[in-house]
Request: fold
Amino acid sequence: MNSADSAPLELSYDFALDRDCKTLSRHVLEHLQSFGPEAQDMSALMTRIGLAGKLIARRLSKAGLVAGALGFTGEINVQGEAVKQMDFYANEVFIATFKQSGLVCRLASEEMEKPYYIPENCPIGRYTLLYDPIDGSSNVDVNLNVGSIFSIRQQVGNDPDQTGEDLLQNGHQQVAAGYILYGPSTVLVYSIGRGVHVFILDPSLGEFILAIENLKIPQHGPVYSVNEGNFWQWEEALRDFTRYVHRHEGYTARYSGALVGDLHRILFQGGVFIYPGTIKNPNGKLRLLYESAPLAYLVEQAGGRASTGQRPLLDVVPDHIHARTPLIIGSPEDVALMESFIEDRTRQAEEEFALKP
Ligand code: AHG
Ligand code: MN
Ligand code: MN
Reply:
């Protein structure tokens, strides 16, 4: 037996804490290989996102013990959805956190009809933050995982009439994106266009610490994640896909009701998440600017793919800030499999159309 084998448990724990603890701000600066103004901005932005994540995680960890964490506010948001207390709180947390940043002049979120302007930051603030404060909020009251999704875009022009029209651009314009997953631990996953990096909140330090650098999604994986309760609301191509995975070995269904959690599993284990258009909602449910596009940016940075079924998700230009798109996202081979069923059905329809007298 060597000395490591016989080491008491406490010692190995101390040893883990002794490792090089790389914080979010340091990681951004090192990654950009610069201490210039752009790199400082990005580092400060990511630190602020981390702070918002810590505040939200803190309240979630006490949900049921403190007021304002469980249940609904009684309001209906711009999406027509009942607002939960945590949706409201988390939305306010992002505003409060970025009000003092000096970097962000405008925030757009699922919970606000129009962007929120911070006029005092506008002469200097050059970025817009787009975010889903709580993703999967139906999970809050049952103590299951939820997330926050964020996207940062460089501000184009001054937007003097406060229309936010310059935000109606494709997802390639994002300069950073990611999510925070509030699960057994709080995990922050981000990209600034140079790979995907995973940080875990160490509560004893109050810091997000680098856990995985340059995460790559598997080319193919076993997971398919889609709400099969909508089966009869789907296009035939998605029914073809589900019949295929039911009949072939090696697939397993996972669906948590929170996109962030489902996608996190797929990033690590491979597979595909699908939120399609339905008969009732032909563009599906997920919002482009602060749900689908940031996750598409992240997944592509990890070597995966994201599509609407018709074109790359990152190419879509929304016609308003809360626009929705169907989403097929995950491992390249599994996204391609779903697309192949769409192509088959499209070809069949074209052939039938051509045969019509
Ligand atoms: P949000 O809580 O931000 O409104 O998002 C919920 C989304 C997403 O997280 C999840 O994948 C999806 O809604 C679940 O919708 P269904 O219940 O229709 O499957
Ligand atoms: Mn959401
Ligand atoms: Mn939400």
In short: The longest helix spans residues 37-61. Residues 172 and 314 are 6 Å apart (CA to CA).
